[in-house]
Amino acid sequence: MNRVESRSLRYFVAVAEELSFIRAAERVGIAAPALSRAISGLEVDLGVRLLERTTRSVALTEAGAMLLADARAALVALDAAVRRARRAAGVAGGKLVLAVKADVEAGLLEDVLAAYRAEPGAVPIEVMFTGWREQPGLLRAGEADVAIVIEPFDTDGLDAEPLLREPQVLALPTGHPLAERPRLRLADIEAEHQQVAVGAHVYVRHGEQSPPFGDMVQMLRQIELGRMLALFPVSLAERNARPQLTWRPVDDAPEATFAVAWPQNSHSLAVAAFVRIATAVSADRGTSPTADAT
To answer: Are 262 and 196 in contact (CB under 8 A)?
Structure first.
C-alpha cells in the first residue's frame, strides 16, 4: 500500500529545491530536525535514497531527481483540485470562472455570456481578465475552469474546441513605409523584418531583439514607437483604432483561430454547458468576414 502523503512530498520538494534543510525548514515552517526525520521517513516508505547528505551539502540522487519532477506535477494537480472544490463550495451551486484576455475574444464574450446565463440551471459565472496568453496556466492551476483563447497556445493537459476564424491584419506605426500600401503580403513584411520566434506573429527588424511587453496595451505602444510590427485578428484591430497606429490587410497571413479550452480532467457539468453554448453561438455567427482595417 502506498503510504506517501502530500505533506511528505511538499517537504521533499522544499529540500530538493533549496538543497538546504535549514532554508527548507524555514520555507515550510517546521524545525530542521523534524524536517530531516520526515525526509528519512519518506525514504523508508519508498525504499530508495532520495538525497545524499553531508555536514556541508545536500544533493539529489537519481531517484530523488525523478521524484522531484513527478512530485511537483502531483502537488500542482492536487492544489488545483482543492481550489476548484473550494471555489465550487463558495456559493450555492458553485460558480464557473472564465479566463479571457480583454479584446481577444472575437467579440464573442457578450453573446456567449448572455446565452450561458439564460441556460436553465446555469451557475454564476465570473469573468477573469488575464494577461497575454496567461489562460492555459490558469486552467492548469485550477484558478479558472474554462477559457477563450487564440491559437496556437500551450495545450498541455487541456482540451479545446475551435470557435471562430477570422483574418489577421498588420499593426504598424503610422508613417511606416509599409503603411503607404493598401494591402500587403508576408514577403513585404519579411523583406526587412524577422519573426521573434518560430510561429510568432511579432516582427522586428533583422538583427534586432523583441522589445519587452506584458500585455496588449504594451504591445500596441511598442508598435507605435516603431520597435516592432505584429499581426492581430481583425476584430481586435476594429476595437483599437488610434492615430499612431495603421492596420493593413495581409493577403497570405494565416487566419486567427479562437477556441474554448478547459482542463482534460474536468468533469464539471457547468464547463460542458459553457463549451456547448460557446460553440453554438460561434456557429450561429460563422467565420468573421474579411475586412479592411485602416
So the answer is: no
Residue 108, C-alpha cell as written in the block: 464573442
pLDDT value at residue 173: 94
Q: Is 55 exposed, middle or buried (0-12, 13-18, 19+ CB in 10 A)?
A: exposed
Contacts of 287 (CB under 8 A, 6+ apart): 164, 165, 166
Beta strands (DSSP E) in the chain are 51-53, 58-60, 96-100, 125-129, 146-150, 158-166, 168-173, 193-195, 202-205, 229-233, 245-249, 256-263
Which cell goes with 5? 502523503
Query: Per mean pLDDT, which of 6-10, 30-34, 68-72, 225-229 is the most reliable?
Result: 225-229
Which of 229, 226, 289 is closest to 255 using CA atoms?
A: 289
Averaged pLDDT, 121-140? 86
Cα dist. 134→175, 197, 283 in Å?
Answer: 32, 18, 26
Task: Find, among 240, 285, 236, the residue nearest to 256 by Cα.
Answer: 236
Residue that the C-alpha cell 476548484 belongs to: 84
Pairing of strands 146-150, 96-100: parallel
How many whole angstroms separate alpha carbon 48 and alpha carbon 132? Answer: 43
pLDDT band at 183 (very low <50, low <70, confident <90, very high): very high
Provide the 10 A C-beta neighbour count for residue 195. Answer: 16
- Alpha helical stretches, state H, 19-61: 21-28, 32-46
The values of phi and psi at residue 182, to 5°, are -70, -30
Q: Tell me the three state secondary structure of residue 15.
A: helix
